[in-house]
Amino acid sequence: MEPCRSVALFSSSLGLVCLLVALSTDFWIVATGTSSAHSGLWPKGGREDEVKGYIHVTQSFCILAALWGLVAVGFLVLSYIPSLSAPGRGPLVSTISAFAAALSMLVAMAVYTSERWSQAPNPQVQTFFCWSFYLGWVSTVLFLCAGALSLAAHCSAPRPGYETL
Predict the structure, then answer these.
(1) Containing domain of residue 146, as a range?
(2) In three state form, how does the secondary structure of the chain look?
(3) For residue 2, how far is the Cα from the chain centroid?
(4) Which family does it belong to (predicted)?
(5) Over pLDDT 70: what percentage of the chain?
């Protein structure tokens, strides 16, 4: 139980860091042509009404995934302190939270990828996904790993029986 829980804590913490970095940076798309430009999820210039709907969906689900990831990390940390958590419940709650974070992130990344992929290309400008975009996908995989490891930690935990009474 202990190694699974420790690796789950590391994986969910790393996933949360990757997600927060991806969410806060603006290197999701790089456009090259006569000059180079990059953009992210947070528009600059005060034109909030011109932001496309898929950006709002991606922002919302990324924030939701960050909150779920924070809950997963919190309950895994609390599972190390026996007086603050019910025996065996910390990994179970973190399993559900990590899978919810992975699902939220998967929805956000799938919406963003499909909308950017289906946009009509401009022959004079080439656009590429950049490192913030890839960090979003990495955080999805890390949350899936954290959920699986938390589930393994929960399933391998000793069950209370008559011996503990």
Answers:
(1) 1-32+87-158
(2) CHHHHHHHHHHHHHHHHHHHHHHHCCCCEEEECCCEEEECCCCCCCCHHHCCHHHHHHHHHHHHHHHHHHHHHHHHHHCCCCCCCCCCHHHHHHHHHHHHHHHHHHHHHHHHHHHHHHCCCCCCCEEEECHHHHHHHHHHHHHHHHHHHHHHHHHCCCCCCHHHC
(3) 24
(4) Belongs to the PMP-22/EMP/MP20 family.
(5) 85
End-to-end CA distance of the chain: 22
Query: Is residue 165 predicted with pLDDT exceeding 60?
Result: no
Answer yes or no: is 55 within a domain: no
Tally of structural domains, the chain: 1
What pTM did the predictor assign?
0.86
Query: What's at 79, amino acid-wise?
Result: S
Q: Is 119 exposed, middle or buried (0-12, 13-18, 19+ CB in 10 A)?
A: exposed
Is the pLDDT at 47 greater than 90? The verdict is no
Residue 7: the pLDDT is: 94
